[in-house]
Amino acid sequence: MKIIDQTLHSKVEGANSFIQHGMITFFAKKPEDLPVARKIGDLIRVHRAVVREYKGRKQFSVNMTYNSSWCLFHSCDVLIREK
User: How do the pLDDT tens digits run along the chain, 83 residues long?
Assistant: First the structure.
């Protein structure tokens, strides 16, 4: 799963620019233990992941059989309040 947050992404102009992103790799015994993102804008929270750098990118390894967990918030379920 590719992830983008404010620490990785900044607005870069130009046709050849690309978006910086990190990667989350999930390990599980059953497919039911894995998150299913519906669309861009969904939010994921990961607990007890191992963070490394791989080929210049942040990589989060989430081992569901070894005490890691996640929760996923679909963007259509999240209400945004304006002040």
Answer: 888 877 665 555 555 556 678 899 999 999 999 999 988 888 899 999 999 998 888 899 999 988 899 999 888 765 555 55
Of 83, 73, 81, 77, whose CA–CA distance to 36 is shortest? Answer: 73
Which fold, 2-73? Answer: OB fold (Dihydrolipoamide Acetyltransferase, E2P) (2.40.50)
Please give the structure tokens belonging to residue 58. Answer: 């942040």
Q: What are the residue boundaries of the structural domains of the chain, listed by start? A: 2-73
Predicted structure pTM score: 0.70
